[in-house]
Write a structure and sequence with these properties.
Elements lengths: L1 H10 L6 H11 L3 H5 L6 E2 L4 E4 L8 E4 L2 H12 L14
Antiparallel strand pairs: 1-2, 2-3
């Protein structure tokens, strides 16, 4: 399973963040809209949590971060150029 995830996200995509996006989605259960709105300010590295101020049910939520989820965020920080963790361009 892990080899398949790596193949379909890292090797088959030109996007550097797709692997981290998939890993974080699996590890946290966050919805894609929540992940796309995620900023560095929402991540508490000490408590290993992500604060979601705006969720589908309109109430804030705090999501625990596993080691894999935390590692996925750390990979993003290497290539980060803005406060938003998953930057999406509408133009290919």
């Amino acid at each position: 399973m892990r080899k398949a995830l790596c193949f379909f996200t890292r090797k088959a995509s030109r996007s550097h963040y797709l692997h981290s996006f998939v890993v974080l989605a699996i590890e946290t259960g966050m919805r894609s809209g929540e992940m796309l709105a995620l900023t560095l300010a929402n991540v508490n590295f000490e408590k290993r949590t992500i604060f979601l101020p705006d969720t589908k049910n309109a109430s804030p939520s705090t999501v625990p971060l596993s080691t894999r989820g935390l590692n996925a965020i750390n990979v993003l920080l290497v290539n980060q150029w803005s406060a938003v963790l998953f930057w999406v361009s509408l133009h290919p």
